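Second attempt. The first submission of Heat shock factor-binding protein 1 had a stray character pasted in from the spreadsheet, which I only caught after the job came back as garbage. Lesson logged: always re-copy from the clean sequence file. Corrected sequence (84 aa) follows.
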Amino acid sequence: MTDLRNDMDSDLDQNYSLNSNADPKNMQELTIYVQNLLQNVQDKFQTMSDQIITRIDDMGNRIDDLEKSIADLMNQAGVEGPEK
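This time the job returned cleanly.
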């Protein structure tokens, strides 16, 4: 009996994914549809969040490299760096 219910749930998941054009007909189908919708939104949010963090890390590394390059150029020119 449990296997039959799992099979039915699996079929409903497939039929009511976001890419499906079928409209939910009852509360269980609506629940599955909303769960899929929320999961997709969460996945997209996580992907975007990861991309933003990666870009911030890359930007920090580039700023560090730029500061080092400026310090090297100042040393080559014989100019002392700013006092901290």
